[in-house]
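Researcher: Here's my situation. A collaborator sent me these components and asked whether they could plausibly form a single complex. I don't have experimental data yet, so a predicted model of the whole assembly would be a useful starting point for our discussion.
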Amino acid sequence: MQQFAPLHRKDNQSVRYLVVDDSVFARKNLIKMIEMFGGEVAGEAGDGLTAIAEFNRTKPDIVLMDITMPQMEGIEAVERIVRQHADARIVMVSSVGYQENILAALQKGAKHFVQKPVKAEVLYEILRYVLSDDPNAAGAPVALAGERRA
Amino acid sequence: MRMELIQPFINAADAVFSEMLQAPTKINDLSMDEETYRRKGVAAHILFKGDIEGRVVLDIAPEVAYKIASHLTGGTVQEGEQIARETVCELANMVIGNSVTLLNDQGFRFKVFPPEIHMQDEGLSGDHDTEAMVICIDTPCGEVFLNIAMHYMRRRRKERDAVAVD
């Protein structure tokens, strides 16, 4: 199994994640990766409405958010969370990766997008990148594959 | 049935299973089927409507679904009907999602409906005038079946736009 250097906040605490997906199986798969990255699961949700409540309750550092879910879809949940918490860091995780979907999510305030099936090394780099905007995050920003940084 | 419509599903299924299981997969068998579809295990049925209409069934034996779920979650799942259904639905979502992305990039627009588990033993009726393609994929966890029945409803957006300009 691939090894990853643990991702920490600047205060050396574990990064806390909220995992949102209507599939228990998909959540477990993401949680396995979070544990590989040295993270801590602050909460789980199976739909957008529960995700908003769990966000308010747990105040996670990162949200991993599916798009297609019952009751309230991920993009609407992103909009509502970001409206209340402008500094929320939300990474969309969806099997549907066409441009309209990605743009809609980013326009509503998501920080990044990763397509399922999620590759651990891709998610790791995205999390490092997203955390690099966090004043509490440790380490220098990293470039994503194919992406130039100044 | 046009191969250009089927190919994205085959490519997506191959990519999803080989990526998730971190091992190569092989297309074992590919055949046309005009009969109603009879499930072999846990079958997730996904409908789509728009420029292309039809349905895809992802069918996996429960023991194969447990193996896949166990592999992906580090052995943290307990065997049971619910986890088998969950696993098949999520895998179907991934295969369809990746296929839709490929077809969308080619200019097709259509709506995909959430997967429904097909439990009846009497078979799943195909779209009246559409034959289905059945693909058997050999994975390290066992065989996975994909049954695809679809047809064009409209011309692609670019073709329509070109006609409008003319």
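Model: Some features of this prediction you could bring to your collaborator: Chain A has a mean pLDDT of 87. Chain A is about 35% helix and 15% strand.
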